[in-house]
Amino acid sequence: MSEFQEYPSQPSVQSGDSTSVKSDEPVETTLDEPVLTTLWREIKQVGTKLFHVVVFCTKTEKVIKDWDLWGPMLVCYILSLLLSINIMIRKGNNGKDDQYSSYIFSIVFICFWLGSIVISLNTKFLGGHLTIPQSICIVGYCVFPIFVGAITTTIATICWSPLSIYVGVPVMILCDIWSCMASFGFLQSAIKLTRRPLAVFPIVLFFTMLSWLTLVVNITGFTSNKATSEA
């Protein structure tokens, strides 16, 4: 007669016992946090991405993964507003000049977003693994050096008008190169080496166009004031 080994019976789990599926780990949620806490977290994330642009993009994978459009929108809006106010201050406050300043705001704003979208589509068509919003985020943050150059040139022009040329030209050239190098640091891991030259050209053209617009606004104010004083 064969012997059978008896095993201890396993404890049965009742269907109504919730302790068998409950986890002690807390679940993170931001739905009930204060608004100021949410804003502060977003501000810190924007500052972190700007820091990566300033130091030529360390830890690019983390920045690309946590993409957002708040930073690019803020940089675009302040840059457009700065150049339009610059025109308003340098050329006067009559109705015609106010209309001209609104044109400057619209031109910079449209060029910013249109150029970012074109670069993003070009990167995608070249086989880049970045999504279009991620590419727009990268390009938008890399405009920050041009924004710094616009502030520097505007302050120099207000202090002394000829500085718009003697300071503005070298500063904007340096900031243009700075923006291009920052964007290359982000995109070099997203596009194959053989296709990178095709992605570089529209990037350089975009940042050079924004730098040129900044210079034109400042130099226009200088030349208009010079012509007024001679008259």
Quick structural summary:
Keywords: Membrane, Transmembrane, Transmembrane helix. With 231 residues, the chain is mainly alpha-helical. It has nine helices and no strands.
Topology, pairings included?
Blueprint: H1 35-54, H2 60-65, H3 70-91, H4 95-125, H5 132-142, H6 144-159, H7 163-166, H8 168-187, H9 196-230
Helix pairs in contact: 3-4, 3-5, 3-6, 3-9, 4-5, 4-9, 5-8, 6-8, 6-9, 8-9
What does this structure look like?
With 231 residues, the protein is mostly helical. The protein has one domain (62-225). It is built from nine helices and no strands. It has helices at 35-54, 60-65, 70-91, 95-125, 132-142, 144-159, 163-166, 168-187, 196-230. α3 (70-91) runs parallel beside α9, α4 packs across α5 and α6 (144-159) packs antiparallel against α8. The longest helix is centred in the last third of the chain and has 35 residues, at 196-230. The protein is globular, with a radius of gyration of 27 Å. The N and C termini lie far apart (125 Å).
Average pLDDT, rounded to a whole number, is: 77
Which stretches are poorly predicted, pLDDT < 50 over at least 5 residues?
Answer: 15-23
Proportion of residues in extended strands: under 5%
Classification by helices and strands: mainly alpha
Question: How many angstroms separate the termini?
Answer: 125 Å
Q: Tell me the major beta sheet.
A: none
* Alpha carbon gyration radius: 27 Å
Shape designation: globular
The SSE order reads HHHHHHHHH
- Give the beta-strand count: 0
Helical fraction equals over 70%
Subcellular location: Golgi apparatus membrane; Membrane
Organism: Entamoeba histolytica
Biased composition (Polar residues): 7-21
Keywords: Membrane, Transmembrane, Transmembrane helix
